Amino acid sequence: MLKGIIFDLDSTLIQAQIDFVEMKKHMIRLLEEHGHPEGELSPTVQTTVQIMECAREAWDKDAKSRDECQTITDTIEGIMNKGELDAVVDLHEIEGACEAITELKEKGLKLAILTRSHHEYALKALDKINALNFFDVVLGRNETPEPKPYRGAIDHTLKLIGLERGEVAMIGDHQIDRDSASNSGTMFIGVATGRRGMKSWADQTPPEHFLPSVKELPGYLVERGFIK
Q1: Which of 149, 174, 177, 189 is most buried when burial is the number of CB atoms within 10 A of its CB?
Q2: What are the CA-CA distances from residue 95 to residues 11, 19, 188, 218 (Å)?
Q3: Distance (Å, rounded) from C-alpha 40 to C-alpha 53?
Q4: CA–CA distance from 132 to each of 2, 13, 136, 140 (Å)?
């Protein structure tokens, strides 16, 4: 029986018009201006986490000063934060998301948000769809020891909500979310509302538990005996 649900945010509960490719192009231009080899980073193939991992590896190799690394990191954070916050005005709830969240909360489940977006953006997004007060924990970028898809992201979330791996499910629209659950040993349920459709999944193979959207989540969990 499940006692908690960890939700991804973008394309799982909300849809926002964030231009991630343009955001990553801006990041890459900045990194290349500070000496990163041109053409090594890709705004379409790599995630923001992968881009920064490559950057840090290069900084270590080049023995770049801590102060310069921090200045670059802070500037990139500003780029990402602005891109996300600018999108708040036009974001909207995925149909049925709030209804599903309400039903799960009424059943006594603990609910958490685990996103790679900015914390302030997550709060504003949830507030805009009138869902903020349903969540026990909201964790954004840099608020976990490791980002998704690494194990530390979900492990930290579990610690904060006081549950064990076998007591929660992770819900998300992307392979990163599935990998997060797999790496931490938690159940995963995928939804088909990702921006890239089935291309959101490795080899375009859907997860074992897969729903059209989060709207169907409460009924699915009851039907499968995961909650009463």
Answers
A1: 177
A2: 11, 22, 21, 14
A3: 12
A4: 21, 12, 9, 14
pTM of the model: 0.86
Half-sphere exposure of 61 (CA within 13 A, CB side): 9
Res. 55 pLDDT band, cuts 50 70 90: very high
Q: Work out the number of other CB atoms within 10 angstroms of the CB of residue 40.
A: 14
* 106's tokens: 């009424």
| C-beta separation of 147 from 140 below 8 A | no
Q: How far is CA 90 from CA 18, 82, 84, 85, 198, in A?
A: 10, 14, 11, 10, 24
Helix (H) or strand (E) holding 95, with range, is none
pLDDT in tens, 205-227: 999 999 999 999 999 999 999 99
**What is the architecture, at CATH level 2, of domain 4-16+92-223?**
3-Layer(aba) Sandwich (3.40)
DSSP 10: B
